[in-house]
Amino acid sequence: xxxxxxxxxxxxxxxxxxxxxxxxxxxxxxxxxxxxxxxxxxxxxxxxxxxxxxxxxxxxxxxxxxxxxxxxxxxxxxxxxxxxxxxxxxxxxxxxxxxxxxxxxxxxxxxxxxxxxxxxxxxxxxxxxxxxxxxxxxxxxxxxxxxxxxxxxxxxxxxxxxxxxxxxxxxxxxxxxxxxxxxxxxxxxxxxxxxxxxxxxxxxxxxxxxxxxxxxxxxxxxxxxxxxxxxxxxxxxxxxxxxxxxxxxxxxxxxxxxxxxxxxxxxxxxxxxxxxxxxxxxxxxxxxxxxxxxxxxxxxxxxxxxxxxxxxxxxxxxxxxxxxxxxxxxxxxxxxxxxxxxxxxxxxxxxxxxxxxxxxxxxxxxxxxxxxxxxxxxxxxxxxxxxxxxxxxxxxxxxxxxxxxxxxxxxxxxxxxxxxxxxxxxxxxxxxxxxxxxxxxxxxxxxxxxxxxxxxxxxxxxxxxxxxxxxxxxxxxxxxxxxxxxxxxxxxxxxxxxxxxxxxxxxxxxxxxxxxxxxxxxxxxxxxxxxxxxxxxxxxxxxxxxxxxxxxxxxxxxxxxxxxxxxxxxxxxxxxxxxxxxxxxxxxxxxxxxxxxxxxxxxxxxxxxxxxxxxxxxxxxxxxxxxxxxxxxxxxxxxxxxxxxxxxxxxxxxxxxxxxxxxxxxxxxxxxxxxxxxxxxxxxxxxxxxxxxxxxxxxxxxxxx
Length: 705
Ligand code: FUL
Ligand code: CA
Hints:
The chain is of the alpha+beta class. The chain folds into four domains: 31-336, Glycosidases (TIM Barrel), CATH 3.20.20.80; 341-466, Jelly Rolls (Sandwich), CATH 2.60.120; 476-566, Immunoglobulin-like; 570-703, Sandwich (Jelly Rolls), CATH 2.60.120.260. It has twelve helices and 31 strands. An eight-stranded parallel beta barrel has the order 1-2-3-4-5-6-9-10, surrounded by four helices. The chain is globular.
């Protein structure tokens, strides 16, 4: 009898413990993936022969002697990353040209064959040591696509690549991330042995997170702009998909799959310049702090990690334009997340789970995401309330889920108390590792977070509120077809000043207000949201030139300076080839209007003939492809002809492929030997996306300087 009672009591307490324990939900992260998500922000470095040849994709036939940085300083890279608040560095150990930044035994296209340090150097050795010194994690990018290796495209190449990987992963200490690039723009397609490659990674680095379109550690976010979906699940369905061209659709990569079968969180990759490799041409095109803030909130703020590329230059250091920008960004981020106002709140919640010692409401505002709060399993519509005696003003909400137990929240909203009434100020979907909402200033004594739907009992680790300082938006410069330059600024009350002689604008530089023509539709949506008033300035620039603009506030504060370089304006240009009316969109000065060849046309090649209306000495051309998700008609192979009479075109003055244009559809500049011409002919030879029959031109331009 006595024994039976004991047994019963034991069973009862066992049942109670079962009820209190939080059952994990769905696909779960590994310990390494949780640690990886906590890193949030780290550096990407592209460095190699392309740094010296102005290329994005080297052909592998370049003389290794071109790689000759004058004073490589990997400690400067690491110091810059550290001061920028980054947690690690991933380096392109081997890009598509096959060039190895270490003296690999398995290649003859390496630093050993280069002019740098008489062939005795090793970039991986220097960087891994510098990372260790500065307390940063170290990661490597190795492209399986190899345009140099003689065995590429043969049955023996996979083993060569496995050996190469093994060499890198066994010689330079711990590696937190192995970056596998899916790109393959060549004619030879090698069937990769991913199983073999992964086994080499895990054998050497069991805690490495493997990046690719389909993970398994983390996934590409589907664009090279660094922006994740507002809905972003860390789970993904990967059956039937492979890295590269066979990857999941862009939307799945961007938003994940709700209830996806594997935990493969998003990593947002983007370069601080238009291209991934250094080029002196982009020294004045380093992204503004405003743009980088959009990226930060669009990645870290949407349950993604941000890997920001900062290319090393020809000297072998991070260029001052880039490092200065990183420090400016750090300053703004530090100021934005300095004082967590949630810590001062009285915090309460409906439906707090009882009987589980780990669950506490006070864990929600203790400043760490290792502790959490949770509801009972049955709870629906849970509310977390932050109450203040005196009103607070905030404009950022940070939420975190305790992801070790799975991603759960599907819908939530934020409300404040205003004049005794509850007012909804935001309604969003997923949270995941971290969600940051950028809001206008709100002043209130009560903030409510409503968890509206969740896959299972919500488990939240942090609720934070901040008041970020206002960041004065950078002016935007654009030129219309009629050669008028318009400068706008999205910050209310800002006064724009500009220069046309390359000097830094000051309060003494010219300022002149015009009106905003309705064509100015291409300011980013993020920025539009906060627009309260806009102003614009018009300057006529038919022959081109450099425009610098800066916004100033009455209190003396100012924005960053923005620079735009224009060549001859398309004011007199006319399309001579077919579909002239539609094709005019390709020469209207507007990046947002795009000429796409008709759907029913036969397919490639396509061409555009233009009368420039005058004879010019041409030194190159520019092609702006359409951007945006699923853009049709991005051109890969091209030929470019010129003529003095519009009839005789001769042989092309330039031909080739726009490297990496599929994933990074930015402005392409192709220089060629100077030639006098009045007519130009752009031939689209092949598409960037296999099977695409259409060709598209957002803008075609000439280079006369
Ligand atoms: C892409 C590559 O093709 C680019 O060159 C760059 O390395 C980028 C990060 O990944 O797939
Ligand atoms: Ca256009």
